[in-house]
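User: Second chain of the day. Same drill as before.
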Amino acid sequence: MKQIPMLDLKLEYEYMKTAVDDAIKKCLDHQRWILGPEVKELEDSIASYLGSKHCIGCCSGTDALTLSLRASSIKLRNEEYFSKTDKVITTSFTFTATGDAILRSGATPVFVDIDPVSFNMDTNQIEDYINSNKDVVGILPVHLYGQACNMDEIMRIAGEHNLFVIEDVAQAFGGGWKNSKLGSIGDTGAFSFFPSKNLGGFGDGGMISTNDDSIMELLRMLLRHGGKDKYNVDHIGYNARIDTLQAAIVLAKFKYIDEFNERRRHIAGTYSKNLSGISNLTLPHTGSLPEGHVYHQYTVRTSLRQKLQTYLKEKGVSTMVYYPFPLHKMKVFDGRSINHGQLTNAETATEEVLSLPMEPLQSDDTTKYITDTICNFFEDN
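Assistant: Same format as last time:
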């Protein structure tokens, strides 16, 4: 029976094998494994692509978020960490790293509900919380599944209340909002190069974008033990540099990012065309800016999720649930976070969402097999 994976990294490697192998060989030749030349080249290349003044490589997307928050605390408070009374608004429907980073920075996460159509933060809920609560210092929007949050509204709210904005772009490299690339709009953008991302390495890696010179200087200190001189440091820092080898691999794969994102859009378009009109199956919403969506995941929702997932597995089609638990239901956030309202939409989404295979090199025949299989399921249910 045909087996269809969510992602086929081996297939992708074969597609770009020469570029990747050449990049690795250059590292083997120069042996500069820490902050080698590929690190700066990657930083400069991505900064130019995003239209950002600075990009700073780090060792993961999680660290990109944590470092951004720590740098914001030092700049705004002249303190190494925020206090628990400092609140950062984010979504409960995301990977745990988003909320964990806020805790690591010393602040308190405030979870607001999502828009049930886009899965992103409901901007009305952001403003509602700010208008009735003090001590909010920032907003951390997550561009979930590759779809942009409403950055016009988020930046307007942040400007009116003097808040920082840190974009979580882990799932949306190359995505856009109007004329701007995601990650270039807020005070910083946090990217992940985890292997399964739209732009992924062969291990962990991350990047932070910013137009703020002072934030950039703080970030470069924090990721290298906390100082410009590692033997005489200023701040409580980390060993959070991106490895030269990972930078080289990501740099090689970076040349394919627009092509692969366009392939993702093509697959998503086929999914949407072939699955439209099925009752009890809600398809992703692209909003008014479809060109900005980069489909890290193509996520449908149905009350028959478990039954559908089992059926697809029996037919050789892999699927994943991103995410089965909202952050506000996790033990780690119990007593350490604030919920604004009932978060009903986030909770319902965790019970209904299902992500379909989104391999950029997936053939049209494979995509058709997946959609035919789903149609057959709903004909019988």
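The first helix runs from residue 9 to 15.

User: Great, on to the next one.
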